[in-house]
């Protein structure tokens, strides 16, 4: 299996197809397997699609140390160097979008175009593990919390009622190799401590901002819908596209709409 040996972990990755490099970065404490449902088959037709498991997730190493989005960026840069990938199209979903912002700021030559999906720049009012998350995890247990939170944040009640088969298909992959609880919480802390709000004006690459119009659910202090507006105001060369009747997880149950928008963006 393809691993990159870093100084403290083995980082698991996969690459598919030929063409311009296209990197996908997952949400909080989520491995790269979810992208194999739809995005790898779609974009590997004409791109070299790169996916990976964050440290602490999937098949990558799981050190018991502090995680930060800066560390995640360092891991990604090492992977891109290993693969000889430059001028990469980068798509980050949720926390992955925060990591993608930092990657474009710290290593601008690595990034050709940026896709920030259902994400934000900072959690200004809430550092550490959010109280609501802690309360719900205690009440439900870790595995049940992740499953139910994914559904609640991911899709509208109407969609859940009419497309449960598609949601279950996604959950089967999402839950198959769930991160250990410690690593999950370390990812949450990394997400909450992340702050690129002061650097948005310095993101110079063309940037597509995607968000569902109903992505208002919050674990802490700021919804993804509100975060998208902040990104659009702050990033000079950006375009905001709001997907109707969607919440957080359109990539996995309505990929066609997102893919069409992305295709139009990367062709410009």
How is this structure best described in words?
With 268 residues, the protein is an alpha/beta fold. The chain has a single domain (3-266), classed as Alpha/Beta hydrolase fold, catalytic domain (Rossmann fold, 3-Layer(aba) Sandwich). The protein is 42% helix and 17% strand. It contains eleven helices and eight strands. It has helices at residues 39-43, 69-83, 95-106, 131-140, 142-154, 157-162, 164-174, 181-193, 224-234, 250-253, 255-266, and strands spanning 3-5, 10-16, 21-25, 48-52, 88-93, 111-117, 207-212, 238-243. It has an eight-stranded mixed sheet with strand order 1-2-4-3-5-6-7-8, with helices on both faces. The longest helix is centred in the first third of the chain and has 15 residues, at 69-83.
For the record, the CATH class is: Alpha Beta
Q: What is the name of the CATH topology?
A: Rossmann fold
The total strand number stands at 8
Q: Sketch the major β-sheet.
A: 8 strands, mixed
Strand content: 15-25%
The domain count comes to: 1
Radius of gyration: 17 Å
Alpha-beta content class: alpha/beta
Question: Any idea what the CATH architecture is?
Answer: 3-Layer(aba) Sandwich
Termini gap: 35 Å
Mean pLDDT comes to 95
- The geometry reads as globular
Binned, the helix content reads: 40-55%
CATH superfamily: Alpha/Beta hydrolase fold, catalytic domain
Q: State the low-pLDDT regions, or none.
A: none
Lateral strand order in the biggest sheet: 1-2-4-3-5-6-7-8
* Tally of separate helices: 11
Order of helices and strands: EEEHEHEHEHHHHHEHEHH
